[in-house]
Each structure stands twice: as structure tokens, then as C-alpha cells.
Amino acid sequence: MGVASEQIHGIIALALEEDLGAGDVTSIATIPADLPATATIVAKAPGVVAGLPVVEAVFAQLDPSVSVTLLAADGDRIAQTPMELARIEGPARSVLGGERTALNILGHLCGVATATRAYVDRVEGTGARILDTRKTLPGLRVLDKYAVICGGGVNHRVGLYDAILIKDNHLRVAGGVRPAVESARALYPALNLTVEVEHEDQLNDAIQCGAQRIMLDNMSPDRMRAAVELIAGRAEVEASGGITLGNVREVAETGVDVISIGAITHSAKWLDVSLEVQ
Prior knowledge:
By secondary structure, the protein is α/β, with parallel strands linked by helices. The chain is 43% helix and 19% strand. It has twelve helices and twelve strands. The strands form three sheets. Strands 6-11-10-9-8-7 form a six-stranded parallel beta sheet. A four-stranded antiparallel beta sheet has the order 3-5-1-12. Helix 9 links the parallel strand 8 (193-197) and strand 9. Helix 3 runs antiparallel to helix 5 (99-122) and helix 5 (99-122) crosses helix 6. The longest helix has 24 residues, at 99-122. The protein is elongated.
């Protein structure tokens, strides 16, 4: 699914420990240990599927005897509801014990994918791509970014270690675009480098310094359009700040290459999914 198994294992282990503790006392008290159960996971709202392999991993980690049959695939659109996403079979205690962990992760990831797809659909035909940010839930970044891909978006850097993004605070401390870029290039010549600019002087410096990507921060569409013309293909152009579903199409039509939107992860609405025992 594009995420390392050890990363998923760690996330699930923490989630199961948080939910189960010493055991599901309600199920232990009311359900015989050898009683089997079959359940389906159902989506009750339109959206985009993301996280079904995590559902498999949750039950595999909790109890390998539980069988999970996927009835949909990540990236599928949920158009008609209710829509069955997976069938779970195994000891009833285990099926119910893993229910909340599986649904919490699945509902969240489907929400991120759904929010991403809404923006992707809105800019269709413009050539602009929708980009995520680091505004993700702590501990869930790799899964949040995976869900963005399921929704048709593109990943930005994963963390502070895999690409250089010189932002306004860096520029203030470093003394401007040129010294910041020159220092970064000298120390990390192989890393992709982006410079955030707020006005034309910074834009010119970023172009002259050879930045691979220039981020236009909180600019109006008219200023973005002028910046794209000035850059003239010498760098990839990113739009950022104040972008909503209501104005993203206008931003895309300025000619920018990518549009970064924190809301697709930090404000995604949890998709309504449930587990129903048959």
C-alpha cells in the first residue's frame, strides 16, 4: 500500500494498546471464547475509500485467525450507500475487539482521501496537481499521505529531513533568499530545494539562485499569474495559503504547477463507516 509494514505495525500496536489495554472486558464477560462471528464493514456516506489494507493489518495483528475479505479497493469512489467494504470472520471476541481501532483509522483515512478528491476534481483539466503538507495527525503522517494519494493528490516532503523548504522564518534568520539558498546548496546539494516568496524581490532572487520550486505564499490570483509568467518554466511553481474549494479552480488557472492545501489532512471530515455483525 505504499507504506512500510513496520510503520503500520507500530501505529496499530499503539492503537490496539490504547483501546484494549488488558482486554475487552465486555466481550470477555458476555461472549464465549469459541463463538464465531461474521461482520461487514460498511460505508454509510459518499466518498473515497482509503485504508482497507490497514483494516487487514489490524485484525492480523490482533488475532491471525481472523479472516478479512476486501470487497472494495483503496481509491474506489463510494457513490451509492450503504456500500460494503470488507467482510470479517473469526472469533467474535476478536472481531469486536478490533472493531474500533479498524474503524477509527479507516474512517479518518477515507475522510482524507475524500477531501483530497474534492480538490482534485475541482482543478481537473488545468494541469495543476493537489499537494499535501505536514499538517497531519501526529503519528499518522505516513497514513495521511497515503490517503492523499488514494484521493488523487500528490505528496509534498514527508518531514523536515527529505527536502529543503526555505520559508519566511528561515529567510528572516538567514538574511534573505540568496544567502539561505547558497548555504543550503553547499550543505545539501542533492536535495530538492523550494523557496517560499511573498513579494517580487524575493521572487527574482529565487529565480536567479536556481530554486527548483518557488512557493507563492498567500498571493492573489493576479499576482500568481504574473509570477508564473516571470518564472517562465525556470522552476516549478507552487501556490500556498488561503486556498479553498471555492477559489482553487481560479488558482489552478493561473498556471501554477502544484497547489498545497493543509485542509485535506488537518480538517478532513471523518467518513461514516461501521462494522455490522451478521
